[in-house]
Design brief:
51 residues, mainly alpha, 96% helix
């Protein structure tokens, strides 16, 4: 029974770490997308001001 409890604890720990790193990746991807949108908007404003 002791080995079963260890296996369950390790599985729970692995799943928790997997979810944590997954959420960090999603947050990073959103920040990158936001920066890209801001850059494109700046380019469009510059183009509009030149015309």
């Amino acid at each position: 029974m002791d080995m079963f409890i260890r296996i369950v604890l390790v599985a729970v720990l692995v799943l928790a770490l997997w979810r944590m790193f997954g959420s960090l990746r999603r947050t990073k991807r959103r920040e990158d997308k936001g920066a890209e949108i801001q850059r494109k908007l700046a380019e469009l404003r510059k183009k509009r001001d030149e015309e």
